[in-house]
Amino acid sequence: MASITIRNLDEETKQTLREYAAKNGRSMEEQVRLILGDVKKLSLLEPAQIFNPIATSPIHQQSEEKGAPPVNLKGKLILLVIGGGIAAYKCLDLIRRLRERGALVRPVMTNAAHEFVTPLSVSAIANDKVFSELFDRDDEHDIGHIRLSREADLIVVAPTTADLMAKMAQGHANDLASTVLMATDKPVLIAPAMNPKMWSHPATQRNIKLLHSDGIHFIGPNAGEMAESGEAGLGRMAEPLEIVSAIENLLLPKKIPQPLAGKRAIVTSGPTHEPIDPVRYIANRSSGKQGHAIAEALGQAGAEVILVSGPVDIPDPENCETINIQTAREMQQAVETALPADIAVMVAAVADWRTVNASDEKMKKENGKGPASLQLTENPDILKTLGHHKQRPQLLIGFAAETEALEEHAKAKLKSKNADWIIANDVSPEGGVMGGDKNTVKRLSKSGIEDWPKMDKSEVAQKLVNEIIKHFTVETLEI
Ligand code: C5P
User: Fold this and answer.
1) 367 — phi, psi (to 5°)?
2) Which of 63, 345, 366, 409 is most buried, taking the most CB atoms under 10 A from its CB?
């Protein structure tokens, strides 16, 4: 039967088969028998069932999918390093599962892996060439081991033998598999498979710790029967679908919970610039870092965010609608236009005063005369306006940047501006808050004062958003 099959093969396949057989010192018939053996191992079934192996295989029954899988790995290139263990046969199924999901699989086999599964079967299922030799002139010319490891989105090692783990932990690079693992700058996922005694051996346990601390991701091993009769315990390679889901976890964006979905938030950020003439203005040192971080964190929690920002040097958050303004009056107009809103967080350091009449022409020094005096008038207080607005947001939060008597001033603002919370921070120059990346704040509300530890502005933003989420969760529960 094998000879009939060979005769019927097309010339290119016959040539590949001839080369593999010659390289392994086998006849073409022997090579075909081995390939058929791989297919049989893949199915773990009787020969009669070989041609429909996956659907009825007992090993897949518990994890079998319903319907066609999503093509969610489209365009992802996975470098699959196949180690030399009996579980190597599962790689054929793993490759098939990955390709069904749109992934490209480029196989690398260790020499030992060739004893368990033939490169021809791997190559046929992966629809790609199998890479095995570190010093293969053609392969190095063609792609090279550095490109091989760098072009991939992820390296998966399955099965990972005790020996491969030891090599990875120690940084050996003496064959193609270990070299690509050393040369990579991409995440690496390993699926260990070995005898339970080898898994629990102190040397393997040491290597597991080292690999964990190197940031290597693990899937499995599972507990169960071993290929060797009478052996059971921890050491079975994870099933192909479990490996696929670990790959999806690493390669696909995480679904972040959206507790503020359906809520609309307005955030002000940065300074305002109040013109004196076309080239001069009144401003302050606000960088916008804190306000932008809050807007971004609200967006991540699912809120629809309108960010009204004064002139800043930082990028607009991607998940907000940003309205850029210059002056306090423009900010007020943008905020009022954005109403109604459920949440408003007024972080901007709005200039308290503006010139009564900004000059249309650049103001000139006049010989003999002193400096021109600026006539100032008060800007609208946007927070206060919102606090007394007929469309007052349900949760209104202000900031109080002070250089002295922080709590006292913040308490007064909570009341006068009719805010729900005031986030108070000391902006004395020695603290480095204005323009810096850290912030130490207190949260004042009608129920008291909380001191928050010194944190990155992004952490303050996250904590504030967590409090906002809690506020709305409690409100919902109370209803
Ligand atoms: O009064 P003070 O400027 O310290 O108030 C700080 C709080 O009031 C901040 O939340 C700030 O964004 C807001 N504010 C405002 N409009 C102003 C002045 C301050 O919204 N004109």
Assistant:
1) -50, 135
2) 345
* 162-170 vs 176-183: helix crossing angle, rounded to 10: 40
Residues 50-81: tens digit of each pLDDT: 333 333 333 333 345 567 888 999 999 999 99
Q: What's the whole-number mean pLDDT along residues 269-286?
A: 96
Give the distance (Å) from ligand 1 centre to CA of residue 318: 25
Q: Whose CA is nearest to atom 5 of ligand 1?
A: 400
CA 293 vs CA 124, 316, 347, 437: distances in Å: 50, 10, 10, 11
d(CA 236, CA 227): 9
Give me the catalytic one of 24, 195, 222, 284: 284
Same-domain check for residues 144 and 200:
yes
Question: Does 139 map to a domain?
Answer: yes
Mutation choice for ligand 1 from 346, 353, 388, 433, CB with most ligand atoms inside 8 A: 346
Query: In this structure, what CATH number is given to the domain that contains residue 72?
Result: 3.40.50.1950
* Ligand 1 close to Cβ of residue 328 (< 6 A): yes
Do 204 and 308 have their domain in common? Answer: no
Q: Which atom of ligand 1 sits closest to the CA of residue 352? A: 21
- Residue 404, pLDDT above cutoff 90: no
Percent residues over pLDDT 90 in the chain: 67
Residue 25 included in any domain: no
Is position 284 annotated as part of the catalytic site?
yes
Give me the amino acid identity at 430: E
Per the structure, the count of domains in the chain is 2
DSSP letter for each residue of 133-160:
-TT-HHHHHHT-HHHHHHH-SEEEEEEE
Residue with tokens 């209803």: 479
Residue 410 Cβ inside 6 Å of ligand 1? The answer reads: no
Mutate to test the pocket of ligand 1, among 286, 339, 399 (most ligand atoms within 8 A of CB): 399
| Residue range 430-439: mean pLDDT, rounded | 77
- Its pTM stands at 0.56
Ligand 1 site, residue 266, Cβ cutoff 6 A: no
